[in-house]
Amino acid sequence: MKTWFALIVAPGLALASQSIMYALVTPSCSLQTRVLVHVVGAGALIAAAVLALLARGDWVHYGARVAGGPDTDSAEPANARRFLAAVATAVAALSALVILMMWFAAWVLSPCWQ
Among 1, 29, 35, 50, which residue is least crowded by beta carbons within 10 Å? Predict the structure, then answer.
């Protein structure tokens, strides 16, 4: 179940944080503070990183359960789950990287810049 959260929720977090951070630009400019933008960026980054770590835990767990070792290519369910957990780890890590880059732009650029 943790694998599916990392595979589906982490990219959704990246999209949602982009939308919310963009929506907070006008209030941030009028209040002359970027705190809300940074709170959204930090929260989304932490959530995506936790999802990546949970998926990595499943990847390691299913890698240990494969009968012929982690490098076998068989049609066992544990092998398919290990592959899915590896993909979920990569997707969640990439989503965390995207969120970090968007948050970096919020650090560098002023919300009042036109």
Answer: 1
